[in-house]
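Suppose a colleague, Dr. K., hands you the sequence of a protein chain of 198 amino acids and asks what its three-dimensional shape might be. Before reaching for any lab equipment, you can write down a predicted structure in token form. Begin with the sequence itself:
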Amino acid sequence: MSTAELIRSFIETQPLGEPFTPAALLCLGTRKAVDLELARLTKAGVLVRPARGIYVRPKQSKYVGAVPPDPIKIAMARAGGPVEVHGAEAVRRFGLSTQMPVQPVYYTTGPSRRIQYGNIPIRLKHISPRKLVAPGTNVGLAVSALWYLGKNEVTPQTFAAIRQRLSPDEYAQLRAAIPKMPAWMAEQLLKYEREIHA
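The predicted structure, expressed as tokens, is then:
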């Protein structure tokens, strides 16, 4: 098979609406050959390029037409791995704040960078790997919220609010993450448990 045929075969296996970068295709040909074929397929409408260096097989809805990928999927494609919602948004989702972040920001263990996604500026913010626990899950979201609130703001009541939005299994996973938590975070979680069992 030619490089172009290999690339087309790969693209046909990609789920509709799931972004990818040219890096995923470099095992099939040179960077120049990959870029040329992606440009050709984009011009033909087989692919769309929602952001620089990111491609996707367009997903269509009979109600709204083209369905753009969720910003977090764009962030994951650019980061090349898991990302987590920024702590400010995580805090809002757990009902611990009503403040709405101005733009999507995601944590990554890779380099910080900015992505222009249509009219939406997306930020990837580097964090230590120890702060990225179970990314993409409610447990990861909870840990993100706790790190954002910090030592002086996290109390047993914080854990009470978080637990209301977690399933029993998710709460068990959060508790299992205690060894990965800083001492202040683990202490407040254990204090919360002592209070509810008193």
